[in-house]
Amino acid sequence: MIIPVIFAGYFLAVHYFYFDNKDDSFSVETYFDFKESIADSIQGNKILFASGSNNFLGIRAYQIEEEFKVPTVNMSIHAGLQAEYILHRLKSSVNSGDMVIAPFEYSNLGYTGEPGVTLNKYILSYDKQYVDDHYGLVDRLKLLSSISILDLANSVIFGTTKAEDIEKRANFLKNINRNGDMLNMTQHDSLKTKKNPFALPKPFDVETTGLKAIKEFNRYCKKNNVTFFITFPNLIKDKAYTKKKYQEYFEFLLSYFKSNDIAVIGTPEDAMYPKKLFFDSEYHLISNGSDIRTADFIRLFKENTEATTTIKSMKTNTP
What we know:
Layout: H1 2-17, H2 23-41, E1 47-49, H3 61-68, E2 72-74, H4 82-90, E3 99-102, H5 106-109, H6 117-126, H7 128-134, H8 137-145, H9 149-157, H10 162-173, H11 209-223, E4 227-230, E5 235-236, H12 244-259, E6 263-264, E7 272-273, H13 287-302, H14 305-315
Parallel strand pairs: 1-2, 1-3, 3-4, 4-6, 5-7
């Protein structure tokens, strides 16, 4: 009987006392607060980009806004939050007549529902309502057990101060513009930039949790008069992606989106660029890379009849 009591005590301690006082969760909360406040301040229709950090440093919202004369916000934050939560959170910022463009990372498209440290720590610290609304008993126990004793002890013993939070918030936002884009990433770091192609899900030709979340969000958008597009993430161009197994995966994704009536802008290859345009991962472009990516996306956008037609109608509802 002692063992169940110990586990129950630990789970209760995590639920009531754990708070992630490290940078990851606080940066996510800082970016959510900042970007959602921008989106909520916009009168009339708007364009929202949503994904992980690949598009935080990818397609630039301010350049899209300048080109199409429609308010645009880069809502992208952290791929570790997973598509299911990212799209759930986005709903609070989306209104009828808006457009959402989602360049999700391949890790999100292939997400199978396994517990993720980034998401777990964030929702336990800042969004327990999401836990209450979406987690059954088994999933809740998995969530609570993902927090280590060291993490729990660290959060209880050291905590955080308001002054520290203010300083960290200012530091996180120093390179973020009023459209939510991260700027001033100018130097390629060949030692830090990942060189291997992304791992394919196994099996790759089945509906994953990530794809199901996108499908359900697409249905939500159609029901609520929101235009939704999938596009593909910035990625280092690699010979591996020309091989049969990756081409089959790309074909599966395009086929999946088509069969589920999910509109797509571009192809995976349209978003692939030389390694010299990335700085610390296979997804993060330097500023010059972001400029090129944005210009390429604008061209692809203009070639898409549904996108251009929707923009024309959005402008009539934009002050």
